[in-house]
Amino acid sequence: MAGGQKRANPELHENISLIRAMQEANVPRFLAQDLPLFDGIISDLYPNLEIPAVDYGTLQSAVEAVLVESGLQVVPRFVTKVIELYQTFNVRFGVMAVGPTGGGKSCCYRALQSAMGKLHKEGTDKAYQPVNTYVFNPKCITMGELYGEFNALTQEWTDGIASSMIRQAVSLTSQNDDFQWVVFDGPVDALWIENMNTVLDDNMTLCLANSERIKLNTKMQMLFEVQDLAVASPATVSRCGMVYLTPENMTWEPRVASWSQRELYPAEAKDTQARGVA
User: Fold this and answer.
1) Hey, is 229 helix, strand or coil?
2) Beta-carbon contacts of residue 267 (< 8 Å; ≥ 6 apart)
3) Among residues 38, 89, 199, 264, which one has the fewest Cβ atoms lying within 10 Å of its Cβ?
4) Distance of CA 140 to the CA centre of its chain
5) Phi/psi-derived region of residue 99, left when phi > 0, alpha when psi is between -120 and 50, beta in every other case
6) CB distance 24 to 87 below 8 Å
7) What is the distance between the alpha carbons of residues 233 and 237, in angstroms, rounded to a whole number?
8) Of 185, 181, 219, which Cα lies nearest the Cα of 106?
9) Which residues contact 237 (CB under 8 A, 6 or more apart)?
10) 242-259: per-residue pLDDT in tens?
11) SS3 86
């Protein structure tokens, strides 16, 4: 991570590249009360060193625009979380969005998806490409339905939902530059998540029970929407980047404001969305 920072900004001092790498790796997973402690540790290790802020102006503007277009409120802390998700995607193949129900996990990645598509249309930066998502709940189906299984009588192989979606995403990466995000929207289980360890490490390979090996690539991302990591093993957690969406990021005020605009004042909401599109 620090090497990537140095290669991207060779004119910066090495200490600044190192601190930025530590911030991108740790800040998204911290609680609000942990941030001052982390900043204090950094200031003790590197006193009298000013860290210039990374400019995400175009991405931030695009995120705010797509939130308005979607009829949602522009909450500064939530916009920061969207940018943190983008930063984590840049350094990790697998990312876990952790937070309670209603914390904004789905809205977070959807806002980033729409913002990247918007910036691609505008031709702002080649780093921003359209995003295709494959969303399913791995906990509502069996292991055989998830990864595939052999029929005990006929010995025929039946593909699973995750394996078929991942195979489709891999095939699309060879056709265009679009990003492919496979979203596991459900609780982490100690059984099914262990089969993803070879996907989340440097091998990036999904191994199936029929001896098939599906090789993934850097145009793809694995995103896990989970409430907690109570049953996740250290082997899985260490392979993933973390973005923690605390309830404090989304209080009740923006929810009520969005609902009232949509239900009580639909004409004004449409005008606001139209101005956001323009």
Assistant:
1) coil
2) none
3) 264
4) 22
5) left
6) yes
7) 6
8) 185
9) 96, 229
10) 898 887 777 888 888 888
11) helix
Q: Which element (helix H / strand E) includes 116?
A: helix 105-122
- The radius of gyration of the chain from alpha carbons, rounded to an integer in Å, stands at 20
Phi, psi angles (nearest 5°) of residue 232: -80, 140
List Cα–Cα distances, 192 to 77, 135, 147, 165, in angstroms: 33, 16, 9, 16
Q: DSSP string of 11-76?
A: TS-HHHHHHHHHHHHHGGGS-GGGHHHHHHHHHHHSTT---PPP--HHHHHHHHHHHHHTT----H
Residue 65: per-residue pLDDT: 92
HSE (side-chain half, CA atoms, 13 Å) at 196: 31
Half-sphere exposure of 137 (CA within 13 A, CB side): 6
Q: Give the type of residue at 169.
A: A
pLDDT band per the 50, 70, 90 thresholds, residue 110: very high
Q: What percent of the chain has pLDDT over 70?
A: 91
Q: Which residues pair with 98 in a beta bridge?
A: 226, 244
Q: Looking at residue 273, what is its pLDDT?
A: 55
Q: Which residues contact 172 (CB under 8 A, 6 or more apart)?
A: 132, 178, 180
pLDDT-derived band at 109, boundaries 50, 70, 90: very high
Helix, strand, coil tally for the chain in percent (to 5)? 50, 15, 35
- Residue carrying structure tokens 């004004």: 268
State what percent of residues in the chain have pLDDT above 90: 30
Residue 147, phi then psi, degrees to nearest 5: -110, -10
Integer angstrom CA distances of residue 46 from 6, 31, 40, 54, 251: 18, 23, 10, 18, 35
